[in-house]
Amino acid sequence: xxxxxxxxxSYFGVDVGFLSDLHASGIExxxxxxxxxxxxxxxxxxxxxxxxxxPGPEGEHEFSHCPIEPPWRAQFVDMIERFxxxxxxxxxxxxxxxxxxxxxxxxxxxxxVELPVQxxxxxxxxxxxxxxxxFRLCFTDQIAPSPVSDGVRxxxxxxxxxxxxxxxxxxxxxxxxQAVVKAMPAARTExxxxxxxxxxxxxxxxxxxxxxxxxxxxxxxPYKRGRLALSAVYPTFTFGQGTKWRYNREVLSRGLQxxxxxxxxxxxxTVKWLAGPSLSSGALGGYTTDTNRLxxxxxxxEVKKRFEEQFWGEKELSSHRPSPGRLHRGLVGIKTKFSxxxxxxxxxxxxxxxLDLDFIVLMDDFDKLTEATCREMRQACQAASDSGLLVxxxxxxxxxxxxxxxxxxxxxxxxxxxxxxGPDGKLLNQxxxxxxxxxxxxxxxxxxxxxxxxxxxxxxxxxxxxxxxSGMRMEHLRTYGMAALWFYRDGRLVEDKTEDYLxxxxxxxPPSPAVVNIIRSPEELRREVTAGRGLLYARGKSLxxxxxxxxxYPGTYDAPNVFPSTGPMIxxxxxxxxxxxxxxxxxxxxxxxxxxxIHVTSDVGxxxxxxxxxxxxxxxFVTSGAKEFRQTLVLNGTVQRNLVLIAEDVNxxxxxxYARRTRKIGDMPEYCSDxxxxxxxxxxxxxxxxxxxxxxxxxxxxxxxxxxxGILPLATMQYTQSLLTTKQGEQxxxxxxxxxxxxxxxxxxxxxxxxxRDELIHEKVDFRSMSPWVGYGPIVPSKLFEHTQQLxxxxxxxxxxxxxxxxxxxxxxxxxxxxxxTWIRLKRDVDVKELRLFFNGGYPHxxxxxxxxxxxxxxxxxxxxxxxxxxxxxLEPGDWFGFFSRSDTNSNIFTVRxxxxxxxxxxxxxxxxVELFAELDGQHMAxxxxxxxxxxxxxxxxxxxxNSGEQLVSRVQYLQRPAGLDVSVARRLASPGVLDYAxxxxxxxxxxxxxxxxxxxxxxxxxxxxxxxxxxGLWLRKGYVLGHYGDGQDRYRPLGIDLDGRIYVPIAxxxxxxxxxxxxxxxxxxxxxxxxxxxxxxxxxxxxxxxxTWHVSVNNPLDRPVTATIxxxxxxxxxxxxxxxxxxxxxxxxxxxxxxxxVARAE
Length: 1147
Description:
Blueprint: E1 2-3, H1 16-24, E2 30-31, H2 40-43, E3 48-51, H3 73-85, E4 89-93, H4 105-108, E5 113-114, E6 118-121, E7 126-128, E8 136-140, E9 142-143, E10 155-159, E11 161-162, E12 165-166, E13 168-169, E14 172-173, E15 178-182, E16 188-191, E17 216-223, E18 226-233, H5 263-281, H6 301-305, H7 314-318, E19 326-334, H8 345-354, E20 359-362, E21 364-365, H9 371-384, E22 390-392, E23 394-398, E24 404-408, E25 420-421, E26 427-428, H10 444-454, E27 459-463, E28 482-489, E29 492-496, H11 498-506, E30 512-518, H12 522-531, E31 535-540, H13 546-551, E32 562-565, E33 569-572, E34 575-579, H14 589-592, E35 593-601, E36 606-613, E37 616-622, E38 628-636, E39 641-649, E40 654-656, E41 660-664, E42 723-726, E43 731-732, E44 737-746, E45 750-761, E46 779-781, E47 785-794, E48 798-801, E49 810-812, E50 816-826, E51 830-841, E52 849-855, E53 858-863, E54 871-875, E55 880-885, E56 892-896, E57 901-905, E58 912-918, E59 924-925, E60 930-939, H15 949-960, E61 966-968, E62 971-972, E63 979-982, E64 987-993, E65 1003-1008, ...
């Protein structure tokens, strides 16, 4: 038996635990590690194939789990049919979302069976899963006698709708099929109203099948010389992850409500029956199980070998290899006679060739086009393109909140009616309105854009923000890949949005930087290009590959060298640099090292080069008219940054790069390709509720809905958006606040983010639940208050590699601490009726929860099931409350930090059973009044067995005064829930012995007094590391510094006999050098037996010389920097330790 798993054991492709069960029953089992492994030479070795879907056509990315690689759809279907014709057995456990296309249908249409766009309704026979607590299973005992029914009396199957399909889809069977399992007699089917949702309906399936009662869900039949079995039960619950902790074998065997499920037995019987013909003929088969393949992927030595330490030679650090290809020059903004322009596509192409342009991008006005003329445009562009010029079709379209978009690409799509709004149906329906103009909670445009962009058919961008009214600014945008930093019209610059681009980069996922220059005639094209206005440059291997290399929609891991320029050329800077270590282990020197080559040229001479980390200046080089600048910076990859380079020449010409993006896999925020959010929601664009709590997960099996693997949270306080109600009946808050996400810093120890909130989605867009996917605008200023939120998340120590996902992911040890702060500022005088700060919505994922409330040291235990009304508790800073259960759960602790609050508790069946309010009821507050409210949290993993109030109390006592703690060179601050310190010496030293008993705590240390322009690091003199790269002695890792000059040090006291660390600035300057940039990077040491070597460099970003004393501040092995007083010239970059990098400048 071979399971076709397009991604092997990762995601939710195959569960080797269940395969081991089948192997124990006498079945030889195997699976593919990737889609391209599915070849005829491979599959003919098996008697039975388990498949879930059919791949897409050649080269296309669709809503399929199959990557863009062969076998393509036609080849795949042919192999399956050939396999069946030789007597093979095929078990199709169809996994269909029915988004745009039903991916099993290219197979099932040959088999005389249909999967209707319906789902099963049978509320009388359902129950919630034990650990996947918001998903239900459905019971049936309608098992027909059949060759596969022996020992099968009943099953539980997944229940409910799933996108445009069901978790279990009913079957419409032809006469050749035998129904083995049906839903209960009371069950019925209902059509899924795909037109009412955000996802496009499948185009290849009928939607008018009659509704059914007691529908079949599992069937078999003979086919050709082989046999078929079909079930559209979501495969994650069986073959995918069925034995994992979260799924708990409840579909396979354990069942619910003391009624077992015989699904595993049904599968075993079915596989053996399917194998019969080919076993008899010998035409197929012969495979014998390799038991090594039944181990988790990352337990294999060859996987760990791929993550071995990396060592750098001097040559690699002092030079760079240019990217393949060359820079191509082009212009975006051409309007032709298809809309309001004066030139035809051939006329523009001729002018472009005369001007030595490599590409032009059309931006015809959508409201003047039709689907037919758009098709003509595509054909004309294709005809005009050749080996010397790329002409890309495109159009400009406004959305229904005021923004201006451009969409282009070789396969330029035309929107469906659902994607359009406005009186004439010519506006992009981004903030969805139904045909009557009423706003609804949908996002069809998001899916339309994303589908076309990820299929690499189109690029989507925004421009002309100045004239966008109440539309989104650049820092709000989602599902786009490009933004015009500069916008030209009629030969003049209308706007320069460089500052907005830097702010967007600080949110972690910038678009490709572009320039739009509206051109209405070939003559205007000649004039603008000759003047050097509005030109875009893109690096590609060739013109044939330029769109895919640089001009397409950039994904999560892309860093295209695309830039607008009026002079300088950026030959090297952008990169997506990701640090991969086995199990995300910390302190891995070589893999952290990031050589960062800069290569910029100018025909007239360069004035300066500036690099920004978000909106903050990061480096500045004064180049004094040199025509070429080359320098390789020796930086760290584990301090997350988004570094944008801006080059300026002596004539004032500028070029702005795409970002050099750095992050470590497994620890740091990463957006999905839609640019909406990171999975944890710490960063998201548009209306977003910033989380307060990070719940640690255990290995529980992949979750198909994107949620963490192994968690059963009690309280997460997930609603952190403040809600202000005045005595006059005004109300502002809920989820309607639009916000701007900012990354303060992120490193191997902590992540700090901010959310800036002073605007709202207009009240006419009235949703009960706003989210980044459905809330775009119109955007209006808030009336009553504005606020900023900050989340600090200390990472817990890595303890084990993720068994089957990317080997750079891990599971950590013990609790995760966070600190959440909201700063509120009133915009006008108000009479406060109520200010709700935070609340917990939804039922707890545990039985019989308890609360612990500690006020002024007095502790109260509350059985929440017994609460009938509202329990109110006035809490002062330092007071705390927490939750636990006798059953499996994530217990947690909440500590009040800054300002008194009122805690209100209700029974756990209340929709908001935990709420926190400001103690301001009835007060008159003046405009400009500012308030600060903060919480510190500590949340334990589900296997921590923190199931009593006394256990929470003992953890709090240790957190307040860790036994044996010795901190030097810093003073402790009053800061409930956080071990907060400040230093005047730019460093802190911590010694902490192992506690007498296990705490499962991660202690959240923080130290103020750092300079954000100087490198910070943590020197682990002795303590815990996972150990794949070296022991826990004399190890170094870089630290990030937040916007307030603080560093973060998490320590798990249970994991080492003693932790002894020094953290801060390894090298400092005196008062005169406070504005210098000082870089300290460990080049080798601590791993692989290598000596400790270092790079130290200084950059003076000022326009005046700086004379300063530079000295070593932390004693580090191998670094012996004597105090020295040096003068740094304006814009100078000097290496103090480590061989100077090669610097080459043209004469």
